[in-house]
Predict the 3D structure of the following.
Amino acid sequence: DWIQVGEISGRVLQVNWRAVRIQTRELDEVTVPNSALSKDRIINFSRPSQVSGVKLTLAFDDESPPNHVREVLVRVA
């Protein structure tokens, strides 16, 4: 499952009686103690549906021509 706990989000690698191990999008591994889990909000992006999205905020120079910005975004996507 992909979850978010506080500021940490990523794929659950392991759950045991002491902690949950999460791998972030940056491929870092974070261990969150169950005591911390019980005090924070948990969002499960994998349930009830695996369809989810990522919100991005992009900024461009005001002088950039709109067609160039569009071209760059299409190329990156």
User: Anything to note?
Assistant: The beta strands are 2-5, 8-15, 19-24, 29-33, 42-44. The chain has a mean pLDDT of 89. The longest helix spans residues 66-76. The longest strand covers residues 8-15.
